[in-house]
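Hi,

Apologies if this is the wrong queue. I'm a grad student, and the batch job for FadR family transcriptional regulator from Leucobacter tardus produced an output file that my downstream script rejects. I'm not sure whether the problem is my script or the file. Here is the sequence I used:
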Amino acid sequence: MAITTGSERARATLAFLRRKITTGEWAVGERIPIEPELSEQTGVGRSTVREAVRSLASIGMLETLPGRGTFVRSAAPTSTLLNEYLADFTLEEILSYRRALEVEAAQQAALHRTDDDIAALEQAAATEMGCTRCPVLGLVNEDADSAFSSRFHRLIFDAAKNRLLASLYSGINDQLRAPEHRGRLANVATGAEMERDHARILAAIKSGDFIDAVHAMVNHVDHDVVIVTAQHEVVPPLARTPEQQQRIANASEHTASALSEA
Ligand SMILES: [Zn+2]
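Support response: The file is valid. Your script probably expects a header line. Output copied below for reference.
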């Protein structure tokens, strides 16, 4: 690239990376070359490459996972197109859609996972052991790295080998993290429940048991993230243990008092 100024270099680098994705040369789900390689290909410095990668990550086309590299998440800017579309739906509708995606991904993962997928899932499950809640959707551990916050769940979508599911999931996650929904969602699965649930999901995926993968994921998503309203209603209203129900009631009271103070 024959480029002179810094901003031209930045623009050209961004265009170069985006073209790789939109043309499919870098497929969704694929890991992109490492920074030094990209720097060599584009003839710009590593910091310019890093900046371009960040800006594509911010619109949902790329995602950087610590220790694993940067992956193509979507051939289109999900956080703009898909998020604008999803913004027309209620939180209940979006959460129900997220449930459908998680369950389908778990089943597909049990059918299509590779040894590498299992190794990555095992590592993620081990890393998330210390969390007090399932960090799905980044609703907890907000100070932690955002890519870390949904690593286990995200990796299931990698293992499912379905680009459309993975792309839609990115959009859903962005939408559920939107400021207007933030106060209405609660992570109510404890760290111990998360570990037990994730272990069961992982075991089912690993053994290729697609029926148990579905059951394990259904059980998990029905109590990991729930909608809490000021009227003590919780969606989805599915079977939970008394302890889980108590935590939901506590979260509900918390929301009610937050709303009355606002
Ligand atoms: Zn989880």
